[in-house]
Structures are given as C-alpha cells and as structure tokens.
C-alpha cells in the first residue's frame, strides 16, 4: 500500500467532522460578489453567489481535490481561504486559529503556513524580476533569510523542484511553461508551509509536462509533509492526486468523499454526469461505457435555480428538487452527498460510469 | 483505369517560417490521406505542427515570411499554389474549419445569424430571407435551442458551448465535405465538450462529413477518431488505426504520451510515466530522430532520420523508430502498462 493510500485511510478514519483537529476547517463559508448598477450611486442590485455556504475540513498530510466546471466557485473558494478575497460570512480556522476577521498584518504569520500555486505560470510570475528574487521574496518578507544564506536557500529550492542553481539570475521569459510552473512551486515552498493550495496547477501544460509536475508535487508532499488542496477541472488529474474529492456546482459542495469511492460509486447525479462526460483515453473502454449526458449549460451563479441548484439539468429531478434544498447526508462512511434522488445507494439506481475502475484496483 | 482520387491527399508538406532568430521548421514532411466520411485525429503537444498543418491546408499560413513546399490535393486539385479565387471557393464549400476559441472567431459586433448569412451569401446568390432561413435551420441542426430567436442575438449572448455550435453551423452552411476542427473542445467544460463531440459524431454519420480533429487530448481521440496521426516536432512519428495506436503503439513518443495521461478509470497505483526534458526548439532541430534527446531508448542509429513506414505494426500502421519490432514490444511495457522509462541497467 502506498503512502498516499495510507493517508487516505487516515483521512477516512478521522471523518469529515473529524475527532482530531483538522489543519483547515471551513464552516458555512459564503463569498458573494455584489452586482452594482447606477451612474452616480452604486446601488447593489444583486450578488454573484460564487461560494454559498461551504463547509470543508482538510486534515494534515492529505490531498483534497476540488472539482467542478467553470463558475462553480472552486477558485473563489481557494482565494477566500487564503484571504486574497475577504469572505462575506462564515469561518475559516487554520491550525485552530480563526482567520475570517483578521487584517493584513495579523494574517501574515498564517500566510507563512499556507501558500498558493496558480494556474497560469505566465501571469503569476513578475516578468521584470529575476527568478532568484521571485523565489527569495517570501523569505525576505518574512525575514527568514538574507544575504548569502538567502541565495543558498533559493538555489537549493530551485534544484529541489528540478531547475538548476544557475537559473537564479534568469528572467521568467527564458523558461518554458513547465519550468515556470516549477518556479511557482519553488516560491510556494520557500517558507516551508504546511498547506499548499494549488489552483489548476497543471491545466495550462502539455500532458507530458503535466505528468512531470504531478510527480514533482507528489514527491514534495512526501518530503515536506505537505497538505494539498488541489483544484482542477480535469477529473483524471484529480483522481491521480487526491485522497478525498469534493465536487462543486454553482457555489455549493454537492458531493464529498474518499476519491476511490466517489469515482467508483458516485452518488450525486451531477457527479455521475461529470464523470461520464470525460472521454477515456482507451477506445474499448470508451465504447462500452454508460453515458449520462447533460443538456444545456451551467446557469448563472447570479441567479441560481431554487432549492437544489442542479435540478434544471438533472435527469432525475422531480418537484421536490425545486422546492426543498437537499442537505449533505453521509450515505456511506465519510462519503456525503446532497441529493433527493441519489445513485448507487439504498434503493437508488446503480450506475457505473467509469468502466473497469474496480478491476484495475489491484 | 486509375483508382478514384482520395478526398484529401497531403504529400511531404513542409512549412517553414523566417523569424528573427532564424528559420523555424513548423512542419517537416507531413504526408497523409483522408477518405470520405473518415475521422482523422492529429494528436501532439504544443509546437508539434498539428495546427500549422491544418491551417496550411486551408491556405491560412500564406505570408511573405512563410516557405511552403509539398502538396495538398483536394480531389486531385492542388491547393498549395491555387489562386485566391480557387481557394475562396474551396474554403467553405469543400473544406471548412472551426477553431479552439469561438469568441475570437466570431465578430462581436454582428449578430450570429448575420455572420452565417454572410458566409452563405459570399458563395451563393440567394436573398437575405432565404439565407436567414437557412441559417436558422442550421442553428437548429447543431442543437441551438430556440434558433428563431437566437439567430438575432450577438455572440456575447451565447455561452462558450453555444458559440462553438454557432461556429459549426457556419462551417456547415455550404455543405463542405471536410471539417477541420482545431482543438474545438479545449476551451469548454467537460459536459459541454461531450455535447460537442456527440454533435460532431452525428454530423459525421448523418452527412458523411469527413473530420480532421486536431487535439492534444487522447481522450477526445479515443472517443471520435477512426485513424490517428501522432506528431512530434513537425513530423508524423506514428500513424495507424485508433486501436493500433492505443493497443499496439510503436513509437516511444506515443508510449510516453499514453503513459503520461492521468486516467479517470483507474486508481493511482503507480507514478505517471513522464517524458523527460522539454519539447525541442523548432529552430535548428537535431539531425536524425527529433525525439532522440528525450528518448531513453535512443541508440547509435537514431542519428539517421527514420522514415515513416510499416515497421513493427500491422497493415497500414507506420512509425518512425529504428528499434526492432521485438524490442518495441518489451520496452513499451512499464509495470504492466504502456509507458516510457529507461530500461533497468
């Protein structure tokens, strides 16, 4: 059994509510963006409900995957957690301390422990700074190193992420996309954080480079005992890295559970259709599978559908779905879903959207 | 009697661009054929030349700093040096193209319907009324709901998936025989991607539309293609049927590609196969096999350029790799799966 699987087991044991203290505990987090209108006075006419009452706990050493389509709020959730955005309401507890009301200065010691890696390695590195400055900046800001020691530490980091010490004086434009993402990773690692929030870290990269970065993140997790929140729209990538997976739709978590169970026995109809929409890079498996096709587009988060937000596209929706909002219920150990008509539990229909998922488990 | 000409024949296509840094070889001797009703996928990573190949077929890479050699024949009519009038007719009526990013391919200040009408009227002398009716019918055919209303909407009122459908409607307006789709689903969410792929499959079956699908995603390839070309650094390194490429891959680059995909349908039991290093610069490519610097199985002979021919694969399954057929069979298996790894010393 790999270390990853062992960690997954540990995550299951502590459960979502967790007897042990979680590293990160998000409770009823809300982030609304006001929609303003008017020429002289900004009148609030509505709100984009990007993150709407999300609770999630992340335990030390595990990787939580966050999946969903564009506009589901996964990136907003990440940015709110590290306080790049101020939450509208709710609580964010990190190592037991409440972050929600903290100002910039008070956030600083916590920031050391939580770092972000961004999707676009072209946009997230300052083009006018040298790599050494970019990676060394956090160390300097937090007064953790200076002078020759700083340079040595930065060079060690560069080597650790697969670049060379001689890259210290280069500019970001001299690197390819994959190498730039390595610079972003080195910067995030500089302060030896406990938690790394990676927002689509491999989406902009070619598959062969994607594999390099995923393997690197995997090695770093073992070496530095890192905890990851890993956001991706690519469900294959998430399956590969995550111990637990949370599926978001229009600002809400609709399903969360151990990765293997979510992929093999999805409960929420949205998870089922999301999984069955992903083409499998195996012609035979692709021909044999059951597909649950979704019609239409994701509704606007400024005006989400009533009650269960998925009811407008759901193949199993009935009247109750537009009237009563379903709660997250623990259908199987640590596997939660918010749905009135779940798949793969109790009397609900069985559906296997990923053929052969179980056969290859050995 | 000579055999009927192929629908589309590309022979030894070479495209070079003169840049400030020197001559850049984007496409380096690409040859393939396309049959009526066939779906051909061209797969590869950024810079492999897949997009330049498809754009050159449509005459979109003609520019003073481009050197284009070889031949692209549509029903035995040469397109590469065709005059503009011929190209104008062939584009749209015979070959049509859709792009990755439908928002930049549509004109934001014209109504979607008007843009389809324009495409029709550029080729046919029909009244506004008839052209608009045809535009509405086309929008209905590609699954745009309420087409009578949406024909008068602007591109910004369409979602990403709907815009791509509108692009497909426009491409179909003149009933072409070949649709070149350059990463048509890359910018879309998976549920929308599934809808667009299903639409393309339906058009292929119902209309007998031949499709050239340019993509980096082997999942999309497995879903839609009949035949596959794998490209690397301007060359086709392997070509064969869908099953040949996935179940009997001959070229180490294909092994690496297949091995490096994260898969939805299996638990993460082992590390991803990774292709070491970076794709090469297209200026001053190394002699011999272009994949050699990244290939763990490279040997002396790889400094000579291998031709694209049937080597270890079945009928019609060509590749550019000097390794013997037996060696390929053993080297490509890594922990029971296809992968690319240095053989244990």
Notes on the structure:
The complex is a heterodimer of chains A (362) and B (345). Chain A is an alpha/beta fold and 362 residues long. Chain A is 32% helix and 21% strand. Chain A contains 12 helices and 12 strands. In chain A, the strands form 2 sheets. In chain A, strands 6-7-8-3-9-10-12-11 form an 8-stranded mixed β-sheet, sandwiched between helices. The longest helix of chain A is centred in the middle third of the chain and has 18 residues, at 207-224. Chain A is globular and about 65 Å long. The model of chain A is unreliable at 1-19 and 357-362 (pLDDT under 50). Chain B is α/β, with parallel strands linked by helices. An 8-stranded mixed β-sheet of chain B has the order 6-7-8-3-9-10-12-11, sandwiched between helices. A 4-stranded antiparallel β-sheet of chain B has the order 2-1-4-5, covered by helices on one side. A two-stranded antiparallel ribbon of chain B has the order 13-14. In chain B, a hairpin with a 2-residue loop joins β9 and β10. In chain B, α4 (112-123) crosses α5 and α5 (128-141) packs across α7. The longest helix of chain B has 18 residues, at 190-207. Chain B is globular and about 70 Å long. The termini of chain B are far apart. The model of chain B has no long low-confidence stretch (mean pLDDT 92). At the A-B interface, α7, α8, α10 and α11 of A face α8, α9, α10 and α11 of B.
User: Would you identify the regions of chain B where 5 or more consecutive residues have pLDDT less than 50?
Assistant: none
Structural class label of chain B: alpha/beta
Q: Regions of chain A with pLDDT < 50 over 5+ consecutive residues? A: 1-19, 357-362
Task: Characterize the overall form of chain A.
Answer: globular
Largest sheet of chain B: 8 strands, mixed
Show the largest interface: A-B, 54 and 49 residues
Walk across the major sheet of chain B and give the strand order: 6-7-8-3-9-10-12-11
- Strand content of chain A is 15-25%
Question: Span from first to last CA of chain B?
Answer: 57 Å
Largest sheet of chain A: 8 strands, mixed
């Amino acid at each position: 059994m790999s270390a990853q699987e062992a960690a997954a087991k540990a995550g299951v044991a502590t459960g979502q509510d967790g007897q042990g203290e979680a590293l990160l505990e998000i409770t009823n987090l809300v982030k609304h963006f006001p929609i303003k209108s008017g020429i002289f006075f900004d009148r609030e006419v509505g709100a984009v409900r990007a993150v709407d009452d999300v609770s999630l706990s992340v335990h030390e050493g595990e990787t939580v995957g966050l999946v969903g389509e564009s506009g589901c709020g996964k990136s907003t959730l990440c940015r709110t957690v590290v306080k790049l955005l101020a939450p509208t309401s709710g609580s964010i507890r990190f190592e037991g301390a409440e972050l929600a009301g903290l100002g910039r200065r008070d956030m600083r010691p916590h920031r050391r422990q939580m770092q972000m890696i961004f999707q676009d390695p072209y946009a997230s590195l300052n083009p006018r700074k040298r790599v050494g400055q970019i990676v060394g900046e956090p160390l300097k800001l937090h007064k953790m190193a200076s002078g020759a020691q700083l340079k040595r530490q930065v060079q060690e980091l560069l080597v650790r992420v697969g670049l060379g010490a001689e890259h210290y004086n280069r500019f970001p434009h001299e690197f390819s996309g994959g190498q730039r993402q390595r610079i972003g990773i080195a910067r995030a690692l500089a302060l030896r954080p406990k938690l790394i929030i990676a927002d689509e870290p491999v989406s902009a990269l070619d598959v062969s480079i994607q594999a390099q970065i995923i393997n690197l993140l995997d090695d770093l997790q073992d070496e530095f005992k890192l905890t990851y929140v890993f956001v991706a729209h690519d469900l294959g990538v998430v399956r590969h890295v995550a111990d637990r997976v949370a599926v978001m739709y229009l600002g809400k978590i609709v399903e969360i559970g151990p990765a293997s169970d979510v992929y093999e026995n999805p409960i929420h109809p949205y998870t089922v259709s999301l999984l069955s929409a992903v083409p499998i890079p195996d012609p035979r498996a692709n021909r044999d599978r059951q597909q649950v096709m979704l019609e239409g587009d994701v509704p606007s988060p400024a005006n989400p559908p009533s009650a269960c937000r998925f009811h407008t596209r759901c193949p199993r929706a009935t009247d109750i779905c537009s009237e009563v909002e379903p709660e997250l219920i623990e259908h199987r150990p640590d596997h939660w879903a918010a749905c009135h008509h779940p798949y793969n539990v109790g009397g609900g229909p069985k559906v296997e959207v990923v053929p052969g998922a179980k056969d290859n488990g050995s | 009697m000579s055999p009927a000409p192929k629908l589309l024949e590309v022979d030894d296509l070479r495209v070079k661009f003169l840049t400030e840094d020197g001559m850049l070889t984007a496409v380096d001797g690409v040859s393939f054929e396309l049959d009526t009703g066939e779906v051909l996928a061209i797969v590869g990573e950024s810079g492999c030349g897949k997009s330049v190949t498809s754009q050159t077929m449509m005459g979109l890479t003609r520019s003073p700093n481009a050197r284009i050699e070889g031949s692209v024949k549509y029903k035995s009519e040469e397109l590469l040096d065709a005059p503009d009038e011929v190209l104008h007719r062939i584009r749209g009526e015979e070959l049509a193209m859709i792009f990755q990013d439908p928002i930049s391919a549509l004109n934001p200040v014209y109504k979607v319907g008007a843009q389809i009408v324009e495409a029709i009227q550029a080729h046919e002398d029909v009244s506004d009324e008839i052209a608009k009716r045809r535009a509405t019918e086309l929008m209905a055919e590609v699954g745009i709901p309420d087409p009578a209303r949406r024909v008068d909407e602007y591109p910004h009122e369409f979602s990403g998936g709907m815009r791509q459908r509108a692009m497909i409607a426009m491409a179909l307006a003149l009933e072409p025989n070949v649709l070149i789709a350059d990463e048509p689903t890359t910018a879309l969410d998976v549920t929308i991607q599934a809808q667009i792929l299903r639409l393309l499959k339906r058009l292929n079956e119902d209309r007998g539309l031949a499709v050239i699908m340019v993509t980096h995603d082997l999942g999309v390839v497995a879903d839609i293609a009949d035949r596959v070309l794998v490209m690397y650094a301007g060359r086709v390194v392997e070509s064969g049927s869908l099953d040949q490429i996935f179940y009997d891959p001959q070229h180490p680059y294909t092994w690496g590609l297949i091995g490096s995909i994260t898969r939805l349908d299996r638990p993460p039991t082992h590390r991803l196969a990774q292709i070491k290093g970076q794709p090469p610069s297209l200026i001053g490519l190394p002699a011999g096999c272009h994949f050699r610097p990244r290939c763990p199985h490279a040997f002396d002979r790889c400094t000579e350029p291998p031709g694209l021919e049937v080597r270890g694969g079945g009928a019609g399954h060509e590749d550019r790799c000097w390794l013997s057929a037996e060696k390929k069979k053993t080297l490509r298996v890594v922990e029971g799966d296809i992968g690319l790894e240095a053989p244990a010393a």
